[in-house]
Fold:
Amino acid sequence: MLILTRKAEQGIVIDGNVVLRVLAVDGERVKIGVEAPRSITVLREELLTEVADANQAAAARSGDRSVLSARLRMLDRNST
Amino acid sequence: MQVRTNFMGVDEVLEISEQQLFAFEPGLGGFEPLRRYALIGEADSPVEWLQSLEDPDVSFALLEPFLFRPDYVFELPDRDAEALGMQEPADALVRCILTLNEDAEKITANLLAPLVFCRRTHLARQVILQDPELELRAPVFAPVGAVRESTGLAASA
Structure:
């Protein structure tokens, strides 16, 4: 991992087209500006972790299908 | 081709067609190494299953979100549409991952990060939407007695 020290208003350029800039530092909070092409996805890391956790919780287990089939048939009936 | 699955019991083999195969690039969060999946429908229910071709133990129950949330809407970011090779809206197939539970009222769907499949290219991805209104765990069935139209479908015994 590359570790850099930056002061407020200083930035980091990644691969020529992504700029991370420290906008302000206030105690434990750091405000960061991200300039990136629209093709780059920028997400808070914890959101990715939450989705990954949700996916792992959702992964079906053996027998889930039979437990659920009656419920899902009911859903089908209600929607038609 | 044949795919091994554990979702119907232990080590079953299903016959699937090329049309059912989709590649996730990148892989699903939490399952990054797995890229190839089969989308498997059921004759008698609206649920579909996403079965990993690389790991028989990994499958997900999917549901079309509009079935229980008719007002569900999101804008697919251009970068995702491009990465999937979408050319027209009809190319897109949208499904939400269900988290199953024996108690129907606890069954939830992930509306925050839907799966988008491109029928044209057979590429797919989980799109994480930046909309604070969308829930990671949205109830699919409304509690008994609740109004169906506004909160989902009524669950009954």
In short: Residues 64-79 of chain A form the longest helix (16 residues). The two ends of chain A are 55 Å apart (CA to CA). The mean pLDDT of chain A is 84. The first strand of chain A starts at residue 11 and ends at 14.
